[in-house]
Design brief:
Layout: E1 2-5, H1 11-19, E2 24-26, E3 33-36, H2 41-51, E4 60-63, H3 66-71, H4 78-84, E5 91-96, E6 102-106, H5 111-119, E7 123-128, H6 140-146, E8 152-155, E9 166-170, E10 176-180
Parallel strand pairs: 1-8, 2-8, 4-6, 5-9
Antiparallel strand pairs: 2-3, 3-7, 4-7, 5-6, 9-10
Length: 189
């Protein structure tokens, strides 16, 4: 696996790898993630195999901004808009989609990562770097040890928070259910 420091200079190489169907380990403000472009289901299958993750568990979408989330077809309820005001940040919102079903979205509080996501069209599929059931990687060394089969590792130093994002489901009726408490505190309902 090739390792590059996560800088402006490495954005092009990372975007090229993602747009070519690769799997890239990258830092976020919460923990390290492994991402692929959503247009490449085989890359997602590869990440699932590397993590030994059950097929029923979905992967979130990292977005470059809230407007990208709404443009992707997430239903824009008043409750969803209020919570999206926490973006960029350590909050994954599971939102109902116009086409049916739900999708998890997060806008990371990491400007360089958002720039990479923008270069890739505004959305990347992502999950934490760890074998399923193990703790997530908080720095590049832990990430390399956990999932050595990725194509590229972007070393951004230690993750600022070191804890995964909070995950909350927002129903079409505005109900809020906290699925996982993480880096952002929300009231449990």
């Amino acid at each position: 696996m090739r390792t590059l420091p996560f800088t402006e200079a490495s954005l092009e190489a990372a975007a090229e790898r993602l747009l070519g169907g690769g799997a890239v380990i990258l830092p976020t403000e919460t923990v390290y993630g492994i991402a692929c472009h959503p247009a490449f289901p085989a890359a997602l299958d590869r990440i699932r195999a590397l993590k030994r993750r059950p097929s029923a568990q979905p992967f979130q979408l990292l977005a470059d901004g809230a407007e990208t989330v709404w443009a992707a077809g997430a239903i824009r309820t008043p409750a969803a808009e209020r919570l999206a005001a926490c973006w960029p940040g350590a909050l994954t919102l599971v939102l109902p989609m116009e086409r049916g079903g739900d999708e998890g979205f997060r806008v990371p509080d990491h400007a360089l990562l958002r720039a990479l996501i923008r270069r890739c069209g505004g959305l990347l599929r992502c999950t934490s770097v760890n074998v399923h059931g193990e703790p997530p990687a908080r720095d590049a060394a832990e990430a390399a040890a956990a999932l050595p089969g990725a194509d590229l590792l972007l070393d951004g130093g230690p993750a600022r928070m070191g804890v995964a994002s909070t995950v909350a489901r927002v129903g079409a009726d505005g109900t809020l259910t906290v699925l996982r408490q993480g880096g952002l505190t929300l009231p449990v309902r």
